[in-house]
Design brief:
- 22% of the residues lie in helices and 13% in strands.
- It has 237 residues and is an alpha+beta fold.
- It has a domain of 77 residues.
- It is flat and about 125 Å long.
- About 6% of the residues have low confidence.
Length: 237
């Protein structure tokens, strides 16, 4: 009986009243039910347009603006400007490559060195003159052997780990921008950045292991191992 009453039932199940079961009669069958009050409510609403909507959201004020002023042709002399019509369009300029040319001039600084020596037969003196060069110290470069700026290396890392772009796609993107970079070169840059970030990784790992409760993403993924070429093992994020 409990399964019949409380368990899940399909729409075909019909609960039939048992004629032998007693019913609780409180004498309310003959009482007059209160008449429901009917209230008429009217309202107005705007009719939905059948045309496709053109509700444009305002463009963020934080975005930089590049203003173009288009003056009418053959503007007569003495015309007075009374108003202007402004149209804003959201534009996009693809990331562009450029070369940062750092010039550090060499300066020749003459300096006097040596001592004055007295000579027999007179008071003549002899002074030896040497020359030295002065050049400004260049900006800090964590990868002096690379011809890639840190801005490009940061872009590669973001594309790899945030946008999930493999290196061959990234090489194609850079090629469309006018600079063909071999995929092996991007791999070398990537490995050098990883080695440079090892102290930060070690500190981050130490801070994480100090916590009392950790969660991990156990999404499986195949991992290649250089010690076992041609095979993969099951790894986790």
């Amino acid at each position: 009986m409990q399964r019949l009453v409380f368990s899940s039932k399909s729409e075909r199940t019909v609960m039939l009243a048992n004629p032998t079961q007693l019913t609780l009669d409180l004498g309310l069958q003959d009482a007059e039910a209160p008449q429901a009050q009917i209230q008429e409510i009217t309202y107005q609403r705007r009719k939905q347009s059948t045309m496709p909507g053109h509700a444009r959201q305002p463009l963020p004020e934080s975005l930089p603006r590049q203003e173009i002023v288009i003056e009418p042709e053959d503007l007569p002399e003495g015309a007075v400007k009374v108003n202007e019509k402004i149209t804003e369009k959201l534009c996009y300029k693809p990331g562009r490559l450029f070369v940062l040319k750092i010039v550090r001039p060499y300066y020749l600084i003459p300096s006097l060195q040596g001592a004055t020596e007295g000579q027999q037969g007179g008071n003549a003196s002899e002074t030896s003159t040497s020359k030295s060069f002065l050049i400004a110290t260049g900006p800090y470069d964590p990868f002096p052997k690379f011809n890639a700026h840190v801005s490009l290396l940061a872009y590669i890392f973001v594309s790899k780990f945030v946008d999930h772009l493999p290196f061959y796609r990234l090489a194609n993107i850079l090629k469309r921008e006018g600079c063909a970079i071999a995929e092996s070169t991007i791999n070398d840059w990537f490995a050098a950045i990883c080695r440079k970030l090892e102290p930060l990784y070690a500190e981050l790992k130490a801070q994480i292991l100090l916590q009392t409760y950790l969660q991990a993403d156990e999404s499986p993924m195949p991992v290649t191992d250089k010690d076992k070429p041609g095979s993969t093992h099951l790894g986790y994020m």
